[in-house]
Amino acid sequence: MRLTAHGIIQAEEAGRAILYTLNREHLAVPALEALASMQTELKRRLSTEIGGWSLQPNHVSIFGSAARGDGDTSSDIDLFVVRSTGVDEEDPVWREQLARLASNTFSWTGNHLAVSEVDTDELRRLGQESPSVVEDLREDSITLAGGDVNLELNGTQ
Questions:
Q1: I need a labelling partner for 77 at 20 to 30 A (CA). Which of 7, 12, 99, 156 fits?
Q2: Residue 105: how many CA atoms within 13 Å on its side-chain side?
Q3: What's the 3-state SS for 6-42?
Q4: Tens-digit pLDDT string for the chain (157 aa)
Q5: β 113-119/77-83 pair status
């Protein structure tokens, strides 16, 4: 095992078993911990940026491979955004917020942001029609801002 050969992992025989432990003194451990927490850091950065928007959404969640943690370098980061009914889809401030978030997401990750955006009225319709994006949201969405979108999709809010 290469990690053992480099001293990052320590192996100790215990009868017929081998016990492996992380050598927290190794210089590479902080970098490995940072890599292991990338998904958490992405969610934190997205939530922080969205929290600073002047036009707040009713809901934002991450879903798909980014939520499941099984994406790769070619995967989009899927974001579901519910715009308040009073905010026009083409509002320049709204569009700039989304564009800045997409740009920052690419800078942070190297992955493109794919935004599925609806207003509150469209959200109710989606819950009734249940297209594939709704199933994805029900299965693996992680809320970044606002309430639980599944309550609205299920008509319980």
A1: 156
A2: 25
A3: CCCEEEEEECCEEEEEECCCCCCHHHHHHHHCHHHHH
A4: 788 999 999 999 999 999 999 999 999 999 999 988 999 999 999 999 999 999 999 999 999 999 988 888 889 999 999 998 889 999 999 999 999 999 999 999 999 999 999 998 888 888 777 778 888 888 889 999 998 877 667 654 4
A5: parallel
CB-CB neighbours of 25 under 10 Å:
8
Strand partners of residue 19: 12
The C-alpha atoms of residue 142 and residue 136 are separated, in whole angstroms, by 11
Domains of the chain, start order: 2-34 (no CATH), 38-153 (3.30.460.10)
Tell me, what DSSP letter sits at residue 113? E
